[in-house]
Amino acid sequence: KKTLTPKTAHTLSPSEVSKDEKKKKNNPQSKRKMATRLTETTDVTIGMRLDELISSIDTIPSTQLYMAVVVVSVIFSFLLLNSGGTSIEQEAPPSSSPPSTTPLKKITRQGPEPKWHILKILNYAAVSSFLVSVGCFASDASRHMNDSSSLFKFLFGWSFFLCYFFGFFGISFVDADEIMEGQNFESSERSTSSKSKAVHPPAESTPVCTVPSSFEKPTLSKTDLQSKSNEELSNMVLTGQIKDHQLEKLLDHHRAVDVRRLAFDSKLSSVGCGGALTDLPSGPSLDYSRVFGANCEIVVGYVPLPVGMVGPLTLNGQSVYIPMATTEGCLVASTNRGCKAITQGSGATSVILRDGITRAPCVRMNSAKEAAELKLWCEMPANFATLKHAFESTTGFGKLLSVEPTVAGKNVYLRLQCFAGDAMGMNMVSKGSLAVIDLLKSVFPTLVLVALSGNMCTDKKAAATNWIHGRGKSVVVEAIIPQHVVRTTLKTTVQAIVQTNIHKNLIGSAMAGAIGGFNAHAANNVTAVFLATGQDPAQNVESSNCITLLEETEDGDLWICCTMPSIEVGTVGGGTSLPAQSACLKAIGCKGGGVNPGDNAKQLAHVVAAATMAGELSLLAALAANTLVQAHMTHNRKPTTAKST
Q1: Are 562 and 616 in contact (CB under 8 A)?
Q2: How far is CA 581 from CA 164, 460, 495, 572, 597, in A?
Q3: Residues β-bridged to residue 406
Q4: Residue 465: phi, psi to the nearest 5?
Q5: 328 noted as active-site residue
Q6: How confident is the model at residue 626 (pLDDT cuts 50, 70, 90)?
Q7: Which phi and psi (to 5°) does residue 333 adopt?
């Protein structure tokens, strides 16, 4: 064999070896070779790949990277949310501060609407793409882990998906109609209403009795105003150039009423009640043919009552204007101030607790034992079903809800509670009660009807039974007034008005032995609305049952609530058919029968309760600030004029 020998033989010293190793370590080419050998001999982890990706991203200037992300985000958002669409007509949104122009006209937003359906398509596309990418990666994970370029693509895509899921995912699953409705005002509380009613901001100029500025004389020249048309003057009222309560000081009194009617007709039109004042007379007139056989006998004339309009009052998410017929000065102005404060705050929220008019016939038996047997018989469910059938055979709308017998010796008082739809229901429940008595006579031959009304109804009298069990509509209404509104609009403090309510309405009424009279003056507002809307004014007695409660919230604001268990109202029958009263119901938005029986009568009950709360709020504020006498001396006393000689 031929032996090969090296040409040279040289042994490196230890110092030379260390120098050679350092050179190899600092050489970039050596580093890459070492990394390649490392990847070939060891398993690569995600952390190692992430470190490698971060190192590569670090080479990109941060400003360029940031600008690229911003530009891509802006372009994506613009194309997604502003590409085409149709313009919609939208109500002007409410403002916490009085606008410089009338807020009653509709504004049209010209421009594209977001294509919400694109989001739904993108959602499905994003989810599908994300799942496909995960599947592709899992099918060949080892190859993608060892390929920096491929791993970067997957991580970049997954990051994009996460950003999309957090930012946009789920929007399309909200109903598109609800999104569009959210850009408009809340519709009416009644789901059956086909009209969307605007929510108006608080009144720009409110005649507040206890604010000295309301006593000031107008600064506008009467001469300049005389040459303007009524329509021009009405627009000046709507835009705040003229305060509506100062019209009589600037114009002839009759013309002032005409101008104010035009202004309010514009306001009412924006809440779906346009033309409501057409049938409300502003001059001496009455159609006596409507009165005969329905409202009054031996007619010799009529007593005109002035009708004031308060509002807007935000009630259950919609603006309402409330007509009030009264001869008491300062009542309408004071209630208007309460409406303004409520609207500046949370608005009023009202709920119907129960709905049923009552009639309690008094029947007499031969003995107390028979009276007790009658009571027990009526309380059996099967027998109540028989009574209910007899009652409802007399009416198309009435529904018998309950029978509550009360025994007093040989007497039995059957308190029948009936749902009466949109009618107040006294005639309906009386007619049905007679049918119930006829049925009971067939079961108890000794039964004698003493009186169709045995005073346990109780109608037009103060009674604890109405206060406890309710009659008509039982309503609770509440609102929160911010403390700054209490200071600026009501001119008092939260603590002062709360203490006034405790010592006056609660302790004072308790000491007087009041039944349902734990309020400041609920009867004032109830009667004024009753007279304007054709209700039975005598039923003000039980309808004014009210307890007014005030508390300071944890945030220092004022919470006010009125609970009224026996508001007796209707929107059909009785005085509601007269033109003027019908016009006032139309102004509220509850004329005649509702789409569902009872809807309009319930709305009227809400309005009565809310007007009462507004009146309570303003009067308690005046008492707390000790400005009540000043207000009444100013608004209830006409200046005396010297007699001509």
Answers
A1: yes
A2: 59, 21, 40, 11, 20
A3: 413
A4: -65, -35
A5: yes
A6: confident
A7: -65, -45
Kindly name the residue from 399, 460, 551, 552 that is annotated as catalytic.
460
Is 177 one of the annotated active-site residues of the chain?
no
CA atoms within 13 A on the CB side of 607: 33
**With pLDDT > 70 as the criterion, what percentage of the chain qualifies?**
71
User: Of 423, 463, 429, which Cα lies nearest the Cα of 544?
Assistant: 463
CB contact at 8 A, 421 and 597? yes
Q: CA-to-CA distance for 240 and 100, rounded, in angstroms?
A: 7
Among the options 410, 431, 441, 632, which is catalytic? Answer: 632
Q: At which residue do the structure tokens 């209630």 appear?
A: 335
Q: Which residues contact 376 (CB under 8 A, 6 or more apart)?
A: none
Q: CB under 8 Å, gap of 24 or more: what pairs does 223-231 form?
A: 225/250, 225/251, 226/251, 230/255, 230/258, 230/259, 230/262, 231/262
Residue range 253-262: average pLDDT? 84
Tokens of 303: 């007593």
User: How crowded is the C-beta side of 518, counted as CA atoms within 13 Å?
Assistant: 20
Per the document, the length of the chain is: 645
Residue 296 pLDDT: 81
Catalytic annotation on 632? yes
Options 373, 536, 551, 552, the catalytic residue: 536
Hey, what are 531's tokens?
């007279």
122 by DSSP, 3-state: which? helix
Per-residue pLDDT of 593-616, as tens digits, reads: 989 999 999 999 999 999 999 999
CA 537-539-541 angle, 5° bins: 105
Q: Decide the pairing of beta strands 558-567 and 472-481.
A: antiparallel
Residues 289-314 pLDDT 10s: 777 777 787 777 778 889 999 999 99
Angstrom distances, CA of residue 424 to CA of 226, 575, 593:
46, 11, 12
DSSP-derived secondary structure for 85-101: ---EEEPPPP-SS--SS
Is residue 309 a contact partner of residue 203, using CB atoms and an 8 Å limit?
Answer: no
Structure tokens at 436: 């119930």
How far apart, in Å, are the Cα atoms of 313 and each of 81, 316, 435, 488?
Answer: 36, 10, 43, 18
d(CA 592, CA 436) in angstroms, rounded, equals 29
Catalytic-role residue among 328, 373, 551, 552: 328
Residue with tokens 């000295």: 212
> Would you call 422 a catalytic residue per the annotation?
no
Q: What is the mean pLDDT of residues 341-348?
A: 95
Question: For the chain, what percentages of helix, strand and coil (3-state, to nearest 5) are there?
Answer: 50, 15, 35
Chain centroid to CA 622: 27
Q: Taking all residues of the chain, what is their mean pLDDT, rounded to a whole number?
A: 80
Burial of 265 (0-12, 13-18, 19+ CB in 10 A): middle
